[in-house]
Amino acid sequence: MKDYIEATLSNRNLTFNEMKEAAKLLFDEGTDAAEISKLLTALAVKGETADEVAALASVMETYALRPEFPDRSYIDNCGTGGDGCNSFNISTASAFVMAASGVHVAKHGNRKISSASGSHDVLEELGIHNDLTMAETEEMMERVGIAFLYAPNVHPKMKRIGEIRRQIGTPTIFNLVGPLTNPVALTAQYTGINRKEFVMEYAAVLSMLGRKRAVVVSGAGGADEATLAGRNTLVLADNGDLIPFTLTPEDVGLMPASLDAIRGGDAAHNAAIIRSIFNGNRGPEFDTVALNAGIGLFTEGAVKTVKEGVRMAEESILSGKAKRRLEDSAEFCAQRLKQAVSQ
Q: pTM of the entire structure?
């Protein structure tokens, strides 16, 4: 491990094979926690490369526990997080809207590490628990059309790493790797990163990992979501082709708004925002969810253009379908909890 730390500290990028060996050491219980912290910090300071990210993802994949979902198309819209924008849980809200629009969403996520509220913190506030068994997760997907994969449950090797990441307190390579390690065989993926210069490389990694279609966004204002704050930078990976494009809110019929308009807080605060959106309250939060859900629907192929996706997302919210999808998810978890208590 010391060799990899020294190489990274000297600003040398690790090769794919070097990073694979380093990754195995990261997950080795015998590796000193301080050395793990040093490597993660050094990689972040240097700036992670596509090879380093892909190598770590390939090692993590070998340790993952996989749900047995039926053979069909699945999409995830998990972002990298760590953008420092303190927005509410946009991708979590968007996932319900996408599912309500008829696509199957396998949402990968975690608790807060470098933000005020991670996806599973807000899900818990919304009544959706992360302690479902794998069989219950599979049943939830069949009944509700959406399932939530809590990273520590499907990546048991991540428990120790998670503790080290919390101690570091700032984004690491695991933020970049997180969206790449969904154990479901995804057909499509929509994800965001806060590194505009890395969008093309990240899309290439998703294509290498077998996604037939994927969209990567670096949001205006430095967010890891598409925002209303200006011109968003995106790349579409379509069966191996990498197609860059940009998108403003005006392009899809939405009004611009600053990042301040989508600020979030703790899990309870963010859950209240999501409920308000699903009750049909229009505003920047509503439009930001519609924008991101619309891009997700375009990524999955449910619509031909992002603008069509935004209109579909708006309809899913205003018709009450997104709210019902949230309620159905919470009800499913409540029933499982009652069954567990009665046994």
A: 0.91
